[in-house]
Amino acid sequence: MIETVAVTRYVTPLREGGSLPGIVEGADLGTYVCKFRGAGQGPRVLVAEVVVGELARRIGLRTPRLVALDLDPEIARYEADEEVQDLLNASAGLNLGADFLGGSFGYDGLSEVGQSDDGVAAKILWLDAFTANVDRSWRNPNLLVWHGRLWVIDHGASLYFHHGWPGGSLERDGAAARFADQPWKPDDHVLLSHTVELPRADREISALLSKDVFAEVLDEVPDVWLEPVPGADTPDAVRAAYVAFLTARLGTRQWLPEVAAP
Ligand SMILES: Nc1ncnc2c1ncn2[C@@H]1O[C@H](COP(=O)(O)OP(=O)(O)O)[C@@H](O)[C@H]1O
Ligand SMILES: [Mg+2]
Question: What is the number of the ligand closest to the CA of 21?
């Protein structure tokens, strides 16, 4: 499992984010961006953050180190803002933390760092296609520039298939195969112009991923976020469902955007 760090102080909300993230300090003296379990979208978005963030790392992308932030609701007592108090009280236990990249700024879709020929842009496109991430548009790139390099963040909107699981979609025949076949459209993607580099990225990344790698990545997810759903009633059964969906998708390429003729 990802490392657990106790929260020692709530510092400030990150007002720009839709999921009410905040900056917190940890007992390891680290500063983290915290995604709260009580933020309303439920623990599944935190699962997506860990699974896709750790996949990003495996395929050679830069992404902040992730931890499980253990929150004692006592911390809420020192908080004046009522909205924040409610959020902290609803989030006792494990939340998601990402190393705070101090001094980073949002990628604007234009600057040179995304245009260089290091293959990073195509790898990001590949990852978003594979995990069906719709959250890397021009309006909302979820890319940071830090020390002159691109860093990927915010993967909570990927793997949206899991939002159907509580309603029983996992039990329907061919659920994993349906995800495997689901196309993905790059039209709004901030790195759309790199589609032509996808074949090379596909070759490189295919050699790095497998069912075993997916199982390792799912092992990083805390049990408490893997809530039982019809067809998977233990954390390990839920893990196996994610591994099956990802493995099925890796076995196809319908989701990889059509490559423009050279
Ligand atoms: N690890 C980080 N380091 C520095 N800033 C961050 C980090 N993660 C997020 N941010 C900032 O906070 C904003 C909101 O975070 P994000 O993960 O995108 O959450 P949301 O789901 O609310 O969009 C980002 O757009 C970025 O400006
Ligand atoms: Mg975001």
Answer: 1
Q: How confident is the model at residue 41 (pLDDT cuts 50, 70, 90)?
A: confident
Domain boundary among 72, 99, 126: 99
Q: Is residue 175 pLDDT above 90, yes or no?
A: yes
What are the φ and ψ backbone dihedral angles of 33, each rounded to 5 degrees? -85, 120
Rounded CA gap, 191 and 122, in Å? 8
Q: Are residues 23 and 56 in the same domain?
A: yes
Mean pLDDT of the chain: 94
Structural domain boundaries, residue 91: 4-99
Cα of 116 from ligand 1 centre, angstroms: 24
What tokens does 196 get? 């032509």
Confidence of residue 182 (pLDDT cuts 50, 70, 90): very high
Whose CA is closest to atom 19 on ligand 1? 17
141 shares its domain with 217: yes
Q: Is the pTM of this model over 0.90?
A: yes
Write out residues with Cβ below 6 Å of ligand 1. 14, 16-19, 21, 33, 64, 98-101, 104, 106, 142, 153-154, 156
